[in-house]
Write a structure and sequence with these properties.
The chain is of the alpha/beta class and about 260 residues long. It contains 8 helices and 10 strands. Strands 6-7-8-3-9-10 form a 6-stranded mixed beta sheet, sandwiched between helices. Strands 2-1-4-5 form a 4-stranded antiparallel beta sheet, with helices on one face. The N terminus is likely disordered.
């Protein structure tokens, strides 16, 4: 029922383009002596159907990279692409349509509407886009995140972990090309966070979903296929098949100024 990797001829890919590509991307905030260079010529290519964690010390540019990759912010220099679509070539309206139709978001704050039920929160992006919600698809995604019996509850009646599951279901129901997550377990305890991360992992393994996640936790990063490490706004290294121990060691080195 769910298909996230674009098929040949779809608007996102010809089968060769990565899901997300940044080419020599830089981002500068402000001007003159007060200018802050958040990213410095970052180049990464993330394949479809993979789970990538982005890590680095505080102020390394993690969230800036995610926001630019997702089209929430524009780079000062360089190019950003989702599939074959270069974001710099899109005007504000078409960029909004791309984020709505081809990108999913999960943030640390659950961003649920308190007056809506679980099911209404999940289907909200479809309704805002003028699309009719497929009842079977909605039921499938609620079942996948373990909320079939909570569909008529409101956010205030749910735990933090359940609310984040709603946010994940809301992102998945649109069948996005790429799902971006910014510290999705930051507000959760360890056990609940692990359950949510397991759902991200399952979405990659079972649905071929592409996930890009910013996190500060080595344990969270160990759920990913690979980790991209940033320091001082630069992509300084990567790690495939990460373990929590290997990630923690790499992060300690970066924090100590060793690359």
């Amino acid at each position: 029922m769910f298909r996230h990797k674009p098929s040949k001829g779809s608007p996102g890919s010809n089968g060769d383009a990565p899901a997300v590509r940044l080419d020599s991307v830089s981002k500068v905030y402000g001007r003159g002596n007060g200018a802050v260079r958040a990213l410095r010529e970052v180049s990464v290519a993330l394949p479809y159907g993979t789970f990538t964690a982005v890590m680095g010390p505080s102020g390394s540019g993690k969230s800036t990279l995610l926001h630019i990759a997702a089209g929430l912010d524009r780079p000062t220099d360089g190019r950003v692409s989702i599939g074959e679509t270069e974001l710099s070539k899109l005007n504000a309206t078409r960029l909004t349509e791309l984020r709505r139709d081809r990108i999913g978001f999960v943030f640390q704050a659950f961003n649920l509407l308190p007056s809506l039920t679980v099911e209404q929160n999940v289907t909200l992006p479809l309704r805002l886009a003028g699309r009719r919600a497929d009842k079977r698809a909605v039921a499938s995604v609620l079942d996948r995140v373990g909320l079939s019996d909570r569909r008529r509850h409101r956010p205030s009646e749910l735990s933090g972990g359940q609310q984040q599951r709603v946010a994940l279901a809301r992102a998945l129901v649109t069948q996005p090309e790429v799902l971006f997550a910014d510290e999705p377990t930051g507000a959760l305890d360890l056990r609940t966070g692990a359950e949510v991360l397991g759902l991200f992992r399952e979405a990659v393994d079972s649905l071929e979903q592409t996930v890009v996640m910013v996190t500060h936790g080595p344990a969270a990063a160990s759920y990913a296929d690979s980790v991209v490490f940033l320091a001082d706004g630069q992509a300084v290294s990567s790690l495939r098949g990460p373990t929590a121990e290997a990630v923690a060691e790499r992060m300690t080195a970066l924090t100590d100024g060793r690359r």
